[in-house]
Amino acid sequence: MMSSLSLRARSNLLSAMPKRFASSLSASKMQDSNKQIKESIKMTKLDNGILVASLENSSPISRVAAVLNTGSRDENHAEQGSTHALRVFSNLATRNFSSFGITRNLDQIGAQLSISSTRENTTYLLESVRNNISRGVDILSEIVSRPELRHWEIDDTKSRLEFELEVYEQQPELKIVDMIHKASFKNSLSNSIYAPRFNVPNLKSELLSGFRQKNFTSNRLTLIGLGVDHDDLIRFADQFRLSTASSTRQAARFISSELREENLDDLVHVAIAAEGVGQSNKEALASAVASHAFGSVYNRIKYSNGASRLSRSVLQLAKESAGVTSFNVNYSDTGLFGFHLIGSTNDIGNLAKGLYQELSKVATSGFSNEEINRAKNSLKTSLANSLDSSQGFIEAFTKGHDHVNVEEVLKSVDAVQSNDVNAFVKRVASSKHSLAAIGNLSELPRLEELRV
Amino acid sequence: MAQLKATLAFARKLAETGVIKGTATQGLNKALFPLSKYLKYGLLSDDLIKENDTVREALRRLPGDVFQERQYRLARAINLSSGKSVLPEAEWTKPEQDVSYLKPFIEQVVNEQNERDDWNAGRLQ
């Protein structure tokens, strides 16, 4: 749901293979270490710009993630949807492997290869049993650096792209994420991570190769290995030959606008956002705490409305079932902070007005210390939870190399000051907003009318 | 040269990537070339390959304009043969124009089928 707003679209190249959980190599390692051995991350920056990082986590499954610092924000107007297309076409033939060969080879070694992309990053993740990791990396490096993008294979696979778009269009909770980005940014971050229908016929081999040539460059590649020896990983990095062009990224500009999509759905989704802060901004943690203080997960107790600030105030205004949460995303240079409302046609107007009243209340009197502490605990739990999983670790590492040490992260959350959080909310309340809405909007006032 | 432009350009691209080695200007082909009849109809040797499933799949993979030129050449040749005439000598296929545009695709299709058969029979790892 909206709690993970930096939407990540995944495509699994294989259906789940039964994973073999014990490799003899790591079993003996586990027996030797009775106490918790804290391994640290080893990082090397290679001459061609590739950053190699590895961490030993004593897992029987090794993971190698090739993370490219490019995503839908780097698409220009003609290239819209290229990241989606590359995501769907990632299992097609490469220079040394046919599509069939990729599937069978991965099957044979018991590995799983998946690709997921956000607006800023594309991650190719290989998970395999420790002993077979080098064979898996052969295939991974082929897919990342040498896809052939043959025109007949693309034509044959177009239907899969269209299927994904059909599924996407049935889900307003996904569409509202793209819509609020489109309403909030003038360029770059306004691009959806799904291909726009009008551009699907143009997503052909030459366009996709051109996009890859410009954006899939060595200096944007990070190789993260979990459960992989650091020297092995440096050797593997040699197989990833990408173009050495240096690419500049367009700065994202926030704009206040309104995007409404009307249909007859009784369940209306509304998102309201203000400009947030970037990942490296000192207010990044304050923005996350603020989001948790408002209420950023629907409820932790089944069948309840939750006891968050928004649930207790705004949600009470709804006569039929509804949901209100806040969201916060931090991209590299900017961010989005806002609220996601779900309600019935007749309720949504009151919910939106109630939300603005609550927002101005918090802006004037601020959160109490108790609310801030509760929010900090909630944030710490979700950060620690995410760092516990390898996917979460990889995401955190791409955001910042210092975001992966659990103790430091928890300490920095504790160090957030209430004044900073309240100042952030005050700024959000008084700055420009953008609005996106989808559903039966007959009772939803315009943004201008809501803000009085 | 409308019936050959795209094919020649395509073959040049293939030759650059090392996929095809040469045309009818080498060895035995060079000797047999002037004795063959297909060149008098303006056809290339790859136009004459008998159609079966593999060749059909290879034809499907041809770029659009190369495929259309092939169709044009075949239609023209059928026309000529039904009228029991041939092209004027200036328009006969020259040896350097007899590029092998379809054989690489046929090889590719055969290799893919062999890979599938090998895996299914358990001959590969």
Describe the structure.
The complex is a heterodimer of chains A (452) and B (125). Chain A is α+β, with helices and mostly antiparallel strands. In chain A, 40% of the residues lie in helices and 18% in strands. Chain A has a 7-stranded mixed beta sheet with strand order 1-5-6-4-7-3-2, sandwiched between helices. In chain A, strands 8-12-9-11-10 form a 5-stranded mixed beta sheet, sandwiched between helices. In chain A, helix 9 (284-294) packs across helix 12, helix 9 (284-294) packs across helix 15 and helix 12 packs antiparallel against helix 14. Chain A starts with 8 loop residues before the first strand and ends with a helix. Chain B has 125 residues and is mostly helical. Chain A binds chain B through residues 98, 100-101, 104, 108, 150-152, and chain B through 60-61, 63, 112, 115-116, 119, 124-125.
For the structure shown, list the relevant keywords.
heterodimer; A: 452 residues; alpha+beta; 7-stranded mixed sheet; 5-stranded mixed sheet; 12 strands; 18% strand; disordered N terminus; B: 125 residues; mainly alpha; 5 helices; elongated
Helix and strand layout, with pairings?
The complex is a heterodimer of chains A (452) and B (125).
Chain A: E1 9-12, H1 24-32, E2 42-45, E3 51-55, E4 61-68, H2 82-88, H3 99-109, E5 112-117, E6 122-129, H4 133-145, H5 151-169, H6 172-184, H7 205-215, E7 221-226, H8 230-237, E8 258-262, E9 267-275, H9 284-294, H10 309-313, E10 323-330, E11 335-344, H11 348-365, H12 369-388, H13 390-399, H14 406-414, H15 418-430, E12 433-439, H16 447-450
Parallel strand pairs in A: 3-7, 8-12
Antiparallel strand pairs in A: 1-5, 2-3, 4-6, 4-7, 5-6, 9-11, 9-12, 10-11
Helix pairs in contact in A: 9-12, 9-15, 11-15, 12-13, 12-14
Chain B: H1 5-16, H2 27-32, H3 53-60, H4 64-82, H5 103-121
Mean pLDDT of chain B: 84
Which sequence of SSEs, written as H and E, runs from N to C of chain A? EHEEEHHEEHHHHEHEEHHEEHHHHHEH
Main sheet characteristics of chain B? none
Taking all Cα atoms into account, the compactness measure Rg of chain A is 23 Å
Q: Give the N-to-C terminal Cα separation of chain A.
A: 29 Å
Radius of gyration of chain B: 16 Å
Specify the helix fraction band of chain B: 40-55%
Which class of secondary structure composition applies to the elements of chain A? alpha+beta
Beta-strand fraction estimate of chain B: under 5%
| Major interchain interface with per-chain residue totals | A-B, 8 and 9 residues
Helix content of chain A: 40-55%
The spatial strand order of the largest sheet of chain A comes to 1-5-6-4-7-3-2
Share of β-strand residues of chain A = 15-25%
What oligomerization state is this entry in? heterodimer
How large is the count of helical segments of chain A? 16
Please give the largest β-sheet of chain A.
Answer: 7 strands, mixed
Beta strand count of chain A: 12
N-end to C-end Cα span of chain B: 50 Å
Count of runs of 4 or more consecutive helical residues of chain B: 5
Structural class of chain B: mainly alpha
Compressed to H and E, one letter per element, the order of chain B equals HHHHH
